[in-house]
Amino acid sequence: MIHAALSSSGAQVILAASSDENYPPENIIDGNTESFWISTGMFPQEFIVRFSEAVKMSLITIHSYNVKNLRIEKNTSSDATDFELITQKEFEHTDGHLQENDFQLSATTATHLRFIITSGYDHFVSVHSVTVQ
Amino acid sequence: MVKLRAKCILVGDASVGKSALSQMFRSDGAHFQKNYSMTAGVELVVKSVSIPDSGDSVELFIFDSAGKDTFLDACEKLWGQPSVLCVVFDWGQPSVLCVVFDVSSEVSFRSCALWLDRVRAHCQGLQLPGVLVGNKSDLSSRREVEMAMAQEWAQSQGLEYHETSAKEMENCEAPFLSLAQAFYTLYQDRIQTIQTLA
Questions:
Q1: Which of A33, A43, A65 sits opposite B92 (nearest CB)?
Q2: What is the pLDDT of residues B59-116, one digit of tens each?
Q3: Whether the Cβ atoms of residue B92 and residue B62 lie closer than 8 Å to each other
Q4: For A7-111, which CATH superfamily applies?
Q5: Would an 8 Å CB–CB cutoff place A115 in contact with chain B?
């Protein structure tokens, strides 16, 4: 089991549509669900994770709060361009605890993953962790 | 330092002065349009507001909506929920709300309840900070809506009440500053909540 979307394996968040310096997007891939990135208003919101090399994956797990609709796109190029949709989902609303959602994929290879939050259950949504297996 | 973004929906009957108000706010009082020109659909005004003593700011995307019923369908599409048909115009849910009436027109005041309902119908239980604005406060001899009455109704609806005169450049910033502050407070509340979750 490899948590490839962790900063320790060389992954980076190269773009985030919101930034509060107290809750930076790096918190998404630090392997800790206590730290988080929070959106700062309006939708859609997005962030892009770049891996240090092409990564094979069959499962993406996301911990978040108040996210409603999420699309995940990928590419296999060295630039953050030409993304294709791989999966999308409407999350259930949770109260008082984080949302935990798994995305099963039929073996996929990617150099970038792009997460687009098209709507939320509140004005602000937080993403606590993204892991890839 | 953080910059929040809020989608501010500006509604109210035709000719109560919504566009005049948003233009006065945008131009810091430099631009009062003397001739009336009706807004069709929605016009967008963007302006950043600093939150005192914080270094933070709120960028308001003000959707100045047409007051005339003819344009209502188009407006509702732009205020509201994601729509498959117009992905480009999917601006997401409203963040804050500004309902405007003309203090010299009781009819325009009575319409405020309807405008409030229309916008809230798009919000699905979302907490929506709002203000009620009585504009044209310079028309004191023709006033039909007393301040106390407007204030009482605003309070019953959880709105903060402001009186403005776009023409006399009076108090035009206050409603928007108050909305920015309310949205900022909401953001801080949410961060506190989220910190207790993990």
A1: A43
A2: 999 999 888 776 677 677 766 543 333 333 334 588 999 999 999 999 999 999 999 9
A3: no
A4: Galactose-binding domain-like (2.60.120.260)
A5: no
pLDDT in tens, A87-115: 999 999 999 999 999 999 998 999 999 99
Cα angle A73, A78, A82; round to 5: 40
Q: Residue ranges per domain, chain B? A: 3-195
Could you tell me which CATH number the domain at B3-195 has? 3.40.50.300
Q: β-strands A99-120, B42-50: how paired?
A: unpaired
ipTM score assigned to the predicted complex: 0.92
Inter-chain residue contact B5 with A69, CB threshold 8 Å: no
How far away is chain B from the Cα of A114, in angstroms, using its nearest Cα?
18
Q: Please answer yes or no on whether B95 and A22 come within 8 Å at the CB atom.
A: no
By CB atoms closer than 10 A (0-12, 13-18, 19+), residue A28 is buried
